[in-house]
Design goal:
InterPro entries: HTH_LacI, LacI/GalR-like_sensor, Lambda_DNA-bd_dom_sf, Peripla_BP_I. One of its GO terms (molecular function) is transcription cis-regulatory region binding. The chain has about 350 residues and is of the alpha/beta class. The protein folds into 3 domains: about 10-50, Orthogonal Bundle (434 Repressor (Amino-terminal Domain)), CATH 1.10.260; about 60-160 and about 300-330, Response regulator (Rossmann fold, 3-Layer(aba) Sandwich); about 165-295, Rossmann fold (3-Layer(aba) Sandwich), CATH 3.40.50.2300. About 45% of the residues lie in helices and about 15% in strands. The protein is elongated and about 90 Å long. The mean pLDDT is about 85.
Length: about 350
């Protein structure tokens, strides 16, 4: 037979106090002696008491659940973002549901709708492809939504994002200082605002250095295969443009850079002697490649922490239309042997 669930009533009987006294002691509230509170807490632990989230939700009108939407579990960028959100959520008594969208805007909307059905208190979306389309959902449900690194320009939602343009400019300044002049850009055709900002940083930096417009090739995605396909298209295009391979390649992210490095090696090009290469994000494996990859470190864990902090501040407000909160983070250039 399944063991009977220990209730607050059971603890009250064992402690010789009232049901409300036990409730207040478990919540850390109410007036009572330290000795009584400690005895109740010890009894609860000894008896194996587990609070009912359903019951707590009925009282507080909160589920203490946060829905977290990411593009794909295969993208190493999201690992630390999820960890940051979860750690901050747990510190404040919340749990999270995580779901992926497969980098599909319609799927993203479906996931958000499913979270609504699970009665989450708030929704955090990393690398959103939808952006302001959430306006109708927010008006309809009142569930607060916070975006992390939204790929939709001009969003009017609460947001935490990284300054990709500033990061891209620092990468380009590094390459230009090292004397590279035939600098190509490998972009991600599906990335939206993040790619636009990084591409613009590359383009503006070349212009500021008095160099002719460079060569930009886009892969179908930001994965390894996207980097391979973009690099395979880049090399013949570079020979046609410059009569030689590029002397440096600035990649949309680290994953594409890893794919591009494989193509360069297959073609007999040495890194960085023949072609330097940079990434973006500073995923864990970047430091362990051969050669280790120069990149721009995004504070991924902190993005998650601050997104949850914004969510907590929204959940604590009584104003149904709180002013928009936007936090901008900036990482740091990480120079390694690939450049």
């Amino acid at each position: 037979m399944p063991q009977k669930r220990v209730s607050i009533k059971d603890i009250a009987e064992a402690a010789g106090v009232s049901h409300p006294t036990v409730s207040r002691a478990l919540r850390g509230e109410g007036r009572m002696s330290d000795e009584t509170r400690q005895r109740i807490l010890e009894l609860a632990q000894e008896m194996g008491y587990t609070p009912s989230l359903v019951a707590r939700g009925l009282v507080t009108q909160r589920s203490h659940l946060i829905g977290l939407v990411i593009t794909t579990f295969a993208d190493p960028f999201h690992n630390e973002v999820v960890q940051g959100v979860e750690e901050e959520a747990i510190r404040h008594g919340y749990d999270i549901f995580v779901a992926s969208t497969g980098v599909n805007a319609e799927r993203e909307k479906e996931v958000v709708r499913s979270f609504q059905g699970r009665q989450v208190d708030g929704i955090i979306v990393s690398s959103s492809r939808v952006g302001d389309d959430y306006a109708d959902l927010l008006q309809e449900t009142g569930i607060p939504i916070v975006l992390i690194n939204s790929h939709v320009a001009g969003s009017h939602f609460h947001a935490v994002h990284h300054d990709d343009y500033a990061g891209g400019c620092q990468l380009m300044a590094h390459l230009l200082e090292r004397g590279y002049r035939r600098i190509a850009y490998l972009g991600n055709a599906r990335a939206g605002k993040a790619n636009t900002d990084r591409h613009r940083a590359w383009e503006d930096s070349l212009r500021a250095a008095g160099l002719a417009p460079g060569l930009a090739i886009y892969g179908p995605n930001g994965r390894l295969a996207g980097g391979v396909q973009a690099a395979e298209a880049l090399l013949p295009a570079a020979r046609e443009r410059w009569g030689a391979p590029p002397d440096a390649i600035c990649c949309y992210n680290d994953t594409m850079a890893i794919g591009a490095m494989a193509v360069l090696r297959r073609c007999g090009l040495r890194i960085p002697d023949d072609v330097a290469i940079t990434g973006f994000d500073d995923i864990d494996v970047a430091a362990y490649l051969e050669p280790p990859l120069t990149t721009f470190h995004q504070p991924r864990h902190q993005l998650g922490v601050e997104a949850m902090q914004v969510m907590l501040s929204l959940l604590g407000q009584t104003n149904p239309h709180p002013p928009r909160q936007v936090r901008t983070l900036i990482g740091q250039l990480v120079v390694r042997r690939s450049s």
